[in-house]
Fold:
Amino acid sequence: MVNNLVLFENRDGIGLLTMNNPDSMNVFDSQMMQALHDKLDEISQEDLRALIITGAGRAFVAGASIKEMSELTPTQAYDFGQLGHQTFAKIEAMKWPTIAMINGFALGGGSELALACDLRFASEKAKLGQPEVTLGITPGYGGTQRLAQLVGPAKAKDLIFTGRIISAKEALDIGWVDRIYPPEELADKTWDYALSLKKASANAIARSKQAIQAGLSGQDGFETELSEFARCFEHPDQREGMRAFLEKRPPEYK
Structure:
C-alpha cells in the first residue's frame, strides 16, 4: 500500500498526481507526506507541460493526521511540519504550472497543499478551511504565509482565527480558488485548461513563474510559522483540542 499512496501518470505531457488513501480521506500522516515528497522527486525529470494534483474518493486532502499529531512532542512537531514545508516547497518551485483539482474536502494540510499550487480549480461541492486553531495549534504547512498572500492578511486572519470551513463559492469570491465547476465537469475542465497551456512556450511560462515567485518569497515567515506550530505542542490547549476531536466532543479550553 505504501507504494500506492501517491499515484502519478503522464498523459501526453500533462501529469496527474493523485493522493490515494480514500479510506482516510487522504489525510497527511508522516507516511503519506513522505510518499508525496518522494514521488515529487521521482517525477522532477518528467517531460511535462503542467501538473494536476487531486485526491481519490470524496476528499482532496482532509487535513493532517490528528491521531499522529496528538502524540507529538514539540521537537517531533517541528519535524512533522518541516517535512510538509519541504514537500510543498518542491511543488511551488516546479517549473511547470501546477493545478490543484479540488474534488472535495481541502482542510488544514489539504488546503495548504492546494495553496502551494499555482492555480486552484474546485468542485462546486468542495469545502475549504484552515481549522487548526480549533485543535489548539496553528497551520503548520505554510498556510499562514500562502493564504495571506492569496486573499490578503485581514481575510486570512479571519479564516484562520475562526477556523471556519467555507464553500467553494465563497472561496471563489475571495480569491482562494480560481474557478469552480459542477463535480461532473471538474476533471474535464481542468484537463482542458492544462492542455491549453501547451499552446504557449514552456520556457516562457517557467521563467514567468520564477519571476512571480521571486516577488512572493516568505522564507522568514515560513520559519516563524514552523517554530510557532511546534511551540503549540508545549501548551495544554493542543492536548485538549486533539483529545476532544478524537473523543468526538467539544474542546474545553481554559
Observations:
- The chain has one domain: 2-185.
- The longest helix spans residues 74-93.
